[in-house]
Design goal:
This protein is about 45% helix and about 15% strand. The chain is an alpha/beta fold and about 725 residues long. The chain has 3 domains: about 80 residues, no CATH class; about 290 residues, Glycogen Phosphorylase B (Rossmann fold); about 260 residues, Rossmann fold (3-Layer(aba) Sandwich), CATH 3.40.50. Helix 8 crosses helix 29. The structure holds pyridoxal-5'-phosphate.
Length: about 725
């Protein structure tokens, strides 16, 4: 499985280096350089530079190697690339020098960095991807550990009657930015992971993400039985048995992989309970080295960070004891304890009986735990209070670090240039500084409005092109073309709703009262339209039913064309949507939204939020930077919640949002609207950036963990 790099003319040889470091994906000038090689091929390869370089005609490359315009751009990009990756003058070296060159391991079942490496499903993965990129920007030596899923998550198609179909595409490893990961002796790594009475072997791929590294495990090796080879084929693909095996490979295999590669992290960050078996393998290591188990537990807790991501019970993995027994018995033997003692690490009582719960395991064996927004921290402390019954609620050791988004990834490049002009040339170096962003108010309304309109036109062009392509490729029914957004009006107030279709997110709340909605949408002078997008997990029947409901309306004459559904929500679609709509809608049942990040991406691009008070919005809303639906306390009880919230949502649209959007001055600019837009950018961009977030992880957790500081000892021994 060795991967040869495409051979390129000497003068532009280093395009290979650039294509094999996902750094390019958050540097628009680097991305544009690949586009300039062959625009059509760039589109056909779906913006995969490795594939592009494999497929581009040698004559084309030879010509570019003599094209002064291309060479000028090439040299400029390569200079920035080299300068950014080699500089020692980083935020980390100035602020936290003790962590310079200290590896921080970050375990995650998914990483969403760019569509060309489709190893993510949704928000969790994108957060992990943003974390890696920001770590690189700050100068942290982050080492991500995850899976190479050659079939990734599914692509979504809707049948003519609105049923979600899952399509899997195969990513050839030679067309991905992968290097075989080598041991210090220069060998291809092959690591054995004991599972029950057998071993699963993994090989490892190295992906460069700026100065950060990802190590992706791959079970598709000859040494494995056919069913084990399939284990890492897809993200969240299998049944419970496949899932526990995947998690054993992720946690236990992940630690072994780092050892085999000669990497010695000082901090171990578990992104979500999927990776909680890391703690077990590390206990085994300490015990094998002669340490008493109690001390090993202390050591593991001191050095491990755990982030929990959802209050929704189904979002936490838990396994029946018999599966734990079947596959993990080698580990309790190594720890010198019995089955009962081992199961107690993760034991959790559900209404139907006891299970081994990955979040409980992580909470018990890690010393630095957090939820992903202030309100989610509160909710998590309540949820897990029973693990620390002797403590008052506010002393439950789960704090919070609110999620943020990676600014260079999610900000539109043209808006970036506009901000360059008004925020001062150095704004991006300190884009988590709220003072810098106050200058957004200096941008002339008209200029920002035109920039926003352009983004809207781009979104609609993108949607129409997709509709056209699907129409041709799949001989679609014209009604499907309509439902996928071909007739959207770029001048109409456009509401975006795009997220996973899980029932608690209430995608159909806006459809509660169709007559009232129709009146709002079809006002002749003030038309409104709604763009939906999102996947439902293939096993989530209620979620798929919601998609069906939305799609059915989108096809109807009454609302079709004004309610549309864009298929196959992924990073690329998200980029168009969060930049191109006018308002970003979010209406989950509180307090079930842990954080949410798509609204942060929208705000950064001048798209105000219209949201239930929950997740990040509970702390993000300041009274003038968007709209909150209903009461601000996510923990309050409300009867008949859906009807109540829908009513408030319609009222906000009718009395505030629609009138404000259409209130134009003589040059057609909505002044009042632009004030909300600017307040939204200025208040949200700095605080809800991945920069603020990663700095918090570093300053509050990683520094302590790297020092082995004993924050507190908590497990009830
Ligand atoms: C940002 C993003 C998410 C997460 O957004 P939420 O607000 O948490 O729903 C999910 N999927 C994609 C493709 C995204 O870009």
């Amino acid at each position: 499985m060795d991967l040869a790099m495409p051979s390129l003319p000497q003068r532009i040889q280093r395009l290979n280096d650039l294509a094999h470091n996902l750094w390019w994906s958050w540097h628009p000038e680097a991305e544009a350089l690949f586009g300039a090689i062959d625009r059509t091929l760039w589109a056909i390869t779906q913006h995969n530079p490795v594939k592009l370089l494999c497929e581009v005609k040698p004559e084309q490359l030879a010509a570019l190697a003599h094209d002064p315009t291309f060479l000028r751009r090439y040299d400029a990009v390569m200079m920035t690339f080299d300068a950014e990756l080699s500089t020692r003058d980083t935020w980390l070296s100035q602020s936290v020098p003790s962590l310079v060159n200290v590896p921080v391991a970050y375990f995650s079942a998914e990483f969403g960095i760019h569509n060309s490496l489709p190893i993510y499903g949704g928000g969790l993965g994108i957060l992990a991807g943003d974390h890696c990129k920001e770590a690189s920007d700050l100068g942290l030596s982050l080492v991500g550990v995850g899976f190479m899923y050659p079939q990734g998550y599914f692509h979504q198609r809707l049948s003519a009657d609105g049923r979600q179909e899952a399509v899997y595409e195969y990513l050839a490893r030679a067309e991905a930015p992968l290097f075989p990961a080598l041991t210090p002796a220069g060998q291809r790594s092959l690591v054995a992971v004991p599972v029950g009475d057998r071993q699963i072997y993994v090989t490892v791929w190295h992906v460069r993400v700026g100065r950060a590294s990802l190590y992706l495990m791959d079970t598709d090796v000859e040494e494995n039985a056919p069913w084990d080879r399939e284990l890492s084929a897809r993200l969240y693909g299998g049944d419970q048995e496949a899932r526990i095996l995947q998690e054993i490979v992720l946690g236990i295999g992940g630690v072994r992989v780092l050892r085999a590669l000669g990497i010695t992290p000082k901090v171990w960050h578990l992104n979500e309970g999927h990776a909680a078996f890391v703690t077990i393998e590390r206990l085994c290591e300490f015990v094998a080295a002669g340490m008493p188990l109690a001390d090993a537990i202390t050591e593991v807790r001191r050095t491990t960070v755990f982030t929990t991501h959802t209050p929704v019970p189904a979002g936490h993995d838990a396994f029946p004891f018999h599966l734990v027994e079947k596959y993990l018995h080698p580990y309790w033997h190594q720890l010198g304890i019995d089955r009962e003692r081992f199961l107690a690490f993760g034991a959790h009582r559900e209404s139907w009986g006891e299970v081994f719960h990955m979040t409980v395991l992580a909470l018990q064996l890690t010393g630095h735990c957090n939820g992903v927004s202030k309100i989610h921290g509160e909710v998590s402390r309540r949820m897990w209070h029973h693990l620390w019954p002797e403590r008052p609620l506010d002393q439950v050791p789960i704090s919070s670090i609110t999620n943020g988004v990676h600014t260079p990834t999610w900000l539109d490049p043209d808006l970036h240039r506009l901000y360059d002009r008004y925020l001062g040339p150095d704004w991006q170096k300190q884009h988590d500084n709220p003072a810098i962003w106050l200058k957004v108010h200096d941008i002339p309304d008209q200029e920002l409005w035109w920039a926003r309109l352009r983004l809207k036109y781009q979104l609609m062009h993108f949607i129409r092109e997709r509709a056209r392509r699907l129409w041709r490729a799949e001989h679609r029914d014209p009604v499907q073309v309509l439902a996928s957004g071909a007739l959207l009006d770029p001048e109409a107030l456009t509401i975006g709703f795009a997220r996973r279709f899980a029932t608690y997110k209430r995608a159909t709340l806006l459809l509660q009262n169709l007559a009232r909605l129709q009146t709002i949408l079809q006002d002749r002078w003030k038309p409104v339209q709604v763009v939906f997008a999102g996947k439902a997990h293939p096993a989530d029947e209620p979620g798929k039913h919601l998609i069906h409901q939305v799609y059915t309306l989108a096809k109807e004459y009454g609302l079709g064309g004004q309610i549309v559904f864009v298929e196959d929500y992924d990073i690329r679609v998200a980029k168009f949507l969060v930049r191109g709509v006018d308002v970003w809608l979010n209406n989950p049942i509180p307090p079930l939204e842990a954080s949410g990040t798509s609204g942060q991406k929208a705000a950064l691009n001048g798209v105000p939020n219209l949201s239930i008070s929950d997740g990040w919005w509970w702390e993000g809303y300041n009274g003038g930077n968007g709209w909150t639906i209903g009461p601000t306390d996510p923990l309050g009880e409300i009867e008949n919640r859906d009807v109540h919230d829908a009513d408030l949502l319609y009222s906000l649209l009718e009395t505030e949002i629609v009138p404000l959007f259409y209130q134009r001055d003589s040059d057609g600019v909505p002044r009042g609207w632009m004030h909300v837009v600017k307040s939204s950018i200025a208040s949200i961009a700095p605080l809800f950036s991945a920069r603020r977030m990663v700095k918090e992880y570093i300053e509050r957790f990683y520094v302590l963990a790297a020092d082995g500081k004993n924050e507190e000892l908590r497990m009830k021994n």
